Amino acid sequence: MILDSQNSLSNMPGSGIKQRLLLDRLARNLVSVGGVSVIFSIIAILFVIVAVTWPLFKDPHLELQKKFTIAADSSSPALTIGTDEYREVVYAVYSNRMDFFSLPTASLLFSEPLPEKNNSKVTSVALSDNHFLALGLSDGRVVPVQVEFNVTFADGIRFVNPSLNWMPVFSVTENAHSLEQLAAHRTDNSFTVAASPDGKALVVHK
């Protein structure tokens, strides 16, 4: 036997009818709130997509934030420069030294002369991954050095402390040819340096 909803409600006690109506009203409200939430979520996702992709349609531009001089001696310009991943410390390689600067304060942190230079000067620089440098000297020798950045925190403030790990100097040529062309590659346990002392022959050191 099939009973319609009106007959089923008429056969229910008064408290049961009120409870049934209350549950129906609550279910309708939950469904409505859920539907509206889904619509707002989709709209929010669309706004996020537009906000992320909008810069792709804008013309690129550069904005100068800070400018300061890194070469104390204009006659010896920097051969190469680099910076840590937080863009707080900049290092510069010159013909006779390496300087470290603080970007936030635009000041010199420290300067370190090249070891075992023997009156020679840096004529070329090869930069590899993770701030590994091979410095080619005017007497045909190579000075490998690893630039390291030690990051510490004190009272919630980040400090980047640079340091230099100098490696043994080696020669890639028997004659004192100035190294003008140099390339380097650093792995976890070793490094490779390729040089052309006279512009004709290629010397590889591993």
Task: Give a verbal description of the structure.
- The chain has 2 helices and 12 strands, in the order ααββββββββββββ.
- A hairpin with a 4-residue loop joins strand 10 and strand 11.
- Strands 5, 6, 7, 8 and 9 form a 5-stranded antiparallel β-sheet that branches. It has a 4-stranded antiparallel β-sheet with strand order 1-2-3-4, with no helix packed on it.
- The longest helix has 40 residues.
- The protein is elongated and about 105 Å long.
- By secondary structure, it is an alpha+beta fold.
Give the radius of gyration.
Answer: 34 Å
The percentage helix is: 10-25%
Shape: elongated
Strand count? 12
Return the average pLDDT rounded to an integer: 82
**SSE ordering:** HHEEEEEEEEEEEE
Strand content bin:
35-45%
| Major sheet attributes | 5 strands, antiparallel
Describe the oligomeric state of these chains in a short phrase: single chain
Number of helices: 2
Name the poorly predicted regions.
Answer: none
Structural class: alpha+beta
SSE diagram, text form:
Layout: H1 5-10, H2 14-53, E1 80-83, E2 89-93, E3 97-102, E4 107-113, E5 122-127, E6 132-137, E7 141-154, E8 157-166, E9 170-171, E10 182-186, E11 191-195, E12 203-205
Antiparallel strand pairs: 1-2, 2-3, 3-4, 5-6, 6-7, 7-8, 7-9, 10-11, 11-12
What is the structure about, briefly put?
The chain has helices spanning 5-10, 14-53; strands at 80-83, 89-93, 97-102, 107-113, 122-127, 132-137, 141-154, 157-166, 170-171, 182-186, 191-195, 203-205. With 206 residues, the protein is α+β, with helices and mostly antiparallel strands. The strands form 3 sheets. Strands 5, 6, 7, 8 and 9 form a 5-stranded antiparallel beta sheet that branches.
